[in-house]
Amino acid sequence: MLLSTRSTRDMSDKSKPPLTLIDELIAEQRSLTAVAKFSRAHERHELPAQAKHYRDLIPISKPQAGQQYAFEVDLDKCSGCKACVTACHSLNGLEDEETWRNVGLRHGGTPLQPIQQTVTTACHHCVDPGCLNGCPVLAYEKDSATGIVKHLDDQCIGCQYCVLKCPYDVPKYSERLGIVRKCDMCSSRLASGEAPACVQACPNEAIKITVVEQSSTVSALQTATATNPFLPGSPAPTITFPTTRYTSAKPLHETLRPADANELKPQCAHTPLGIMLVLSQLSVGAFTVDRILSLLPNDPSATARPALTLTALITGLIALASSTLHLGRPLARGAHSSAYADRG
């Protein structure tokens, strides 16, 4: 009897016509994203029970002139559980290998008193952000009201110069989208009085949002020279003046270093930029030689100079053309329109 039931069910499944693209799109729309579920719960006043706790982890008042929002991390409370990483990934609809918040280990101390510290990091929304300064198409902006450094996805051309400029490896390039993306401190949630995803998800309340004075942050980072006042083992904070504050009841040992500090990490080859650099130098060199030869009283290569000039020009044009191959695919909007919708 069981066998016949299964056979009948298999035959009915095979008799069903295959799903069309429209069917798949309708089915996808019926499944709510994390953002849509939260919005629905918010409209119905169905906030989670822990809302009263994480509301204390964001400022009551908005930043005033000369102030901005900043992350504050209590290292004594960070257990390395990566709940903040998961929440950020889910809420922003990130790709499998894309992370805007990371949790890592730092080792240090002495052989007799070794130290191991878990650290959660994200964009530091610097006072003088390197990503913004390095973007040739102004795809970054530092919000004048909140100080949050935002990435403008629609303006990004995928050149990845911001990735090279940021000392903290914050901007992440997406091969599929052809653009760079980064943490924006869940600015839309902060504007509505809601905690960012990482703040809300941390079970130990290790992350919170504070308001800092930009001038005081710069002065503190400039005057402290004994140890790294930002975080031991990190790049010099005077490069971009990060606003994230790491606190601990015990002093952070100056020997703390990332656990993977000695690990080789292959980076993007940037082959088109290498080709552009070599060919542009050849072009400039050829034009320089041509100019020097033209100044000689008896130029032995007068007949060959037009060919040299033409070769230098063609080489320069090829160099410029090869540089465009380094850009992403920002115009392929159809491939990632759903990703923008998920980010809400």
The Rg value, from CA coordinates, equals: 27 Å
Q: Sheet bearing the most strands, described? A: 3 strands, mixed
Shape category: globular
Low-confidence stretches: 1-9, 331-344
Task: Give an overview of the whole structure.
With 344 residues, this protein is of the alpha+beta class. The protein has 2 domains: 51-258, 2-Layer Sandwich (Alpha-Beta Plaits), CATH 3.30.70; 271-327. It is 37% helix and 14% strand. It has 13 helices and 10 strands. The protein has a 3-stranded mixed beta sheet. Strand 4 and strand 5 (149-151) form a beta hairpin. It starts with a helix and ends with a helix. The model is unreliable at 1-9 and 331-344 (pLDDT under 50).
Features:
344 residues, alpha+beta, Alpha-Beta Plaits, three-stranded antiparallel β-sheet, 13 helices, 37% helix, 14% strand, globular, disordered N terminus
Layout: helices, strands, pairs:
Elements lengths: L1 H14 L5 H10 L3 H10 L7 H4 L12 E8 L8 H9 L10 E8 L4 E8 L8 H5 L5 E3 L6 E3 L9 H5 L6 E3 L4 E3 L5 H5 L5 H5 L5 E7 H10 L21 E3 L9 E2 L12 H25 L9 H19 L13 H7 L1
Parallel strand pairs: 1-9
Antiparallel strand pairs: 1-8, 2-3, 2-10, 4-5, 6-7
